[in-house]
Design a protein that fits this description.
The complex is a heterodimer of chains A (140) and B (104). Chain A is an alpha+beta fold and 140 residues long. In chain A, 44% of the residues lie in helices and 34% in strands. Chain A has two domains: 5-95, 2-Layer Sandwich (Alpha-Beta Plaits); 97-127. Chain A has five helices and four strands. Chain A starts with a strand and ends in a 7-residue tail after the last helix. With 104 residues, chain B is an all-alpha fold. Chain B has one domain (2-21, 33-95): Ribosomal protein S18 (30s Ribosomal Protein S18, Irregular). Classes of the chains: A alpha+beta (140), B mainly alpha (104). The A-B interface holds A 10, 12, 46, 49, 51-53, 55, 61, 63, 65, 90-92, 94, 99-100, 102-104, 106-107, 110, 113, 124, 129, 132-133, 136, 139-140 and B 13, 15-21, 24, 36, 38-39, 48, 50-51, 54-55, 92, 94-101.
């Protein structure tokens, strides 16, 4: 329970909302998260963008990204609020800590492997692994 | 026996993005038939990509042809692991209207 999870929340705001309403909205949502004990590590408005398909008769929307750190409870509350809010056309939450951890692990493993085989690492770093391929190129 | 060893090495090298020759069409038996094909290499392995972000529309767009479908591995040459990441990313991008579900 106590473990920290990292979520990426993307939501699309109605493009017809006024500038001040936008800031109020994002502020409201971030206080929802902090009230529930989560922290917002990133809060970014990606801006107006053409939608790939129409959502509620709209062809574009304003994309906003939150990166939330917490236990999961604040996400439930945040999603509930977003569902109720008419200005939010769509939202999606993705848990990213596990994927990032895996990416780190892969990276570490790659580095370890490169260190273990100095000859291979040198070849890969030097000529773009061309020597390792040998005469196989003739096949192509 | 020697073929076995070669296969093992082949597999081992795969996650490092080194293109190694794969036994052509059924272990090199009918090598004379069909046209010579260039061995495709997973571009994510070459670039050492560990994570495919669903927000990277420019990248994902390379893998959805006109119709909006996900490009199969056999065409793009992407390895299994990266194709899995890629499909996941494309599906997420579709959900938030970064990519189309269908396109006509």
């Amino acid at each position: 329970m106590a473990e920290k999870r990292v979520y990426e929340v993307v939501f699309i705001v109605d493009p017809d909302t006024q500038e001040e309403e936008m800031t109020k909205l994002t502020q409201n949502l971030s206080t929802v998260v902090t009230d529930q004990g989560g922290t917002i590590t990133r809060n970014e408005v990606l801006g107006r963008r053409q939608l790939a398909y129409r959502i509620g008769r709209k062809n574009e929307g304003v994309y906003v990204i939150f990166e939330v750190e917490g236990t999961g409870g604040e996400i439930a509350e945040l999603e509930r609020r977003m569902r109720v809010n008419d200005a939010i056309m769509r939202y999606m939450t993705v848990r990213v800590d596990e994927d990032r951890q895996r990416a780190e692990k892969l990276k570490a493993r790659r580095q370890r492997k490169a260190a273990k085989r100095p000859g291979f690492a040198a070849a890969a770093a030097g000529g773009g692994s061309a020597p390792a391929r040998g005469g196989d190129d003739s096949e192509a | 026996m020697s073929r076995n060893i070669e296969r093992e090495r082949d597999f081992d090298n795969e996650d490092e993005g080194v293109p190694e020759r794969r036994p052509q069409g059924g272990g090199g038996r009918g090598g004379g038939r069909g046209r010579m094909r260039r061995r495709k290499v997973c571009r994510f392995c070459v670039d050492k990509v560990d994570l495919i972000d669903f927000k990277d529309v420019k990248l994902l767009q390379n893998f959805i042809p006109e119709r909006g479908k996900i490009l199969p591995r056999r065409i793009s040459g992407v390895c299994t692991a990266h194709q899995r990441m890629l499909t996941e990313a494309i599906k997420r991008a579709r959900n938030i209207a970064l990519l189309p579900y269908t396109a006509d």
